[in-house]
Amino acid sequence: MTAHHPFDISGRTAFVTGSSRGIGLALARGLAVAGCEVVLHGMDPARCKDAATALAEETGASVHAVPFDITDAATVRAGVAEVVATLGSVDILVNNAGIQRRHPLVEFPVEEWDEIVAINLTAPFLIAQQIAPSMISAGRGKIVNIGSVQSQLARPHITPYSASKGGVVMLTRGLCADLAALGIQVNALAPGYIRTELTRALVEDERFSAWVRERTPAARWGEVDDLVGGLLFLCSPAADFVNGQVLYIDGGMTAVI
Ligand code: NDP
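A: This is the predicted complex of the input protein with NDP.
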């Protein structure tokens, strides 16, 4: 009998949404280095294509770019069909693309609430729904939804974001209820405060940055590479009996007040 390493995911196919930059690109790089064939995704076609070319050169992996807007259900359907056609079947789906908007509660435009919910919550549901059939046929698959410390903790001025990321936890558990018996593991990975484009204004705000360092038991901002090991675990055979869980990678922020 051949012994397989419990963390070996070489030869798997992976689709990471919002992977043209930031956390998604770091997660896609981790999967490529681990031997996966990867589809990068984002909204801006040029940025997505450039990121795919650079990642293929850097890792030697097979990397494709399939950019499309995930705000609209019809565009999502067409885009995911192209992803499935590109990869043949999808072994690993990482629902990572997300946006943040900040306003005082009474001024929050409902259009921005709708946009946040569409991108952070509805799109992961639609994408999982469309990719599930090929995973069901294969009898295996890994879906990892990217949450946040705001999946559990609220802050002023970001109520729609917190609501959407709280929803990601129950989306994860709902998908687990539907898919676990079919050999598909669905889990969430919830980052703490990580330095990316999304948080650039906060990193540059000295007062806020000092608050993050004080509020985080590890006493620092997270880096995108802090998240890669956790993702590889959730995507590997080592996690074949890990279902419906949320892995917080946050330097201890959600564990300590
Ligand atoms: P970035 O803003 O750096 O990157 C966002 C990515 O999502 C980009 O690839 C962007 O594409 C893509 N995207 C955004 N909107 C759309 C859309 N409508 N259609 C298609 N693609 C879209 O974000 P981060 O890397 O910081 O965050 C990634 C995830 O991690 C998000 O879900 C976020 O909520 C979560 N998170 C982030 C934390 C942090 O501290 N940064 C903390 C906790 C959670 P394009 O390049 O074309 O714009």
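The chain has one domain: 13-255. The two ends are 49 Å apart (CA to CA).
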